[in-house]
């Protein structure tokens, strides 16, 4: 494709008058062929009809910054997440084939969430009472985009333990995107998800804590952070698809323990182990035990059996109450 693009480009230079048009076509083709990021940001303009996605196109790849901060945050956050996966794990976008990264901002009215809808990322503005705009936090953007990667790879079913693993993978790589962009080693990172997203009137520091699940907030409006850090405290009810955002505290804590025991940049070793598990080993119905089994096996393959790295991963799952 690159060779073909080069040939068409030189040909186009010889066609007087057509040069610009052909040049643009070739540039677009080169972008796909060489694996560069393609971002598009849409504005839902707080339309009451939530089915009206994606909304109006407001910024495309390479176009100048908007006057709308949410547009620029969604654009920059998607860019940082793309670059993280490209530079650290050699992954070319959500599908590893350069899929365009679509995001919609100003979704709904005072909408208190962000999500991946199977095709794109969607961000609410928050109600201003509990939550601020969801594009504010780069780890939240990394979280939503990772749901796309999980969909194309392990396909972890969004229910029970596989759903909690799906959620945890999004927290792990969301946090790693943030740590990588801030150049923070594991011991310096805050291990919070959505730090600064809650308004100052709420008693809490973030949506979740990977380092200390269950301590992110405790407020009359929100209740207490319900996340467990150990299987003995696992939520067994039916809310939240069987606690996908609750029990994710357990694998989150295991990742935190493994990454800090290994030391250095969390994305280099612990992140690589988790990424390969997500890409090559986990499946739709995998549970915590399978995640432990595969990450321990991958640590052995990458760093040898009984290496510090493998022992750190084993010990981490054990402390979270998960048997491989
Ligand atoms: N923000 C949530 C998430 O990405 C939305 C949801 O419940 N799916 O997990
Ligand atoms: Zn999620």
UniProtKB/TrEMBL annotation:
Keywords: Hydrolase, Metal-binding, Metalloprotease, Protease, Secreted, Zinc. One of its GO terms (biological process) is proteolysis. The active site is at 144, 245 (proton donor). InterPro entries: Metalloprotease_M4, Peptidase_M4, Peptidase_M4/M1_CTD_sf, Peptidase_M4_C_domain, Peptidase_M4_domain. This is Neutral metalloproteinase. GO terms for molecular function: metal ion binding; metalloendopeptidase activity. Extracellular zinc metalloprotease. Residues 154-322 form the Peptidase M4 C-terminal domain. It is an enzyme of class 3 (hydrolase). The lineage of its organism: Bacteria, Bacillati, Cyanobacteriota, Cyanophyceae, Coleofasciculales. The keyword Phosphoprotein does not apply. Belongs to the peptidase M4 family. It comes from the Bacteria. Its cofactor is Zn(2+). It is found in: Secreted. It comes from Limnofasciculus baicalensis BBK-W-15.
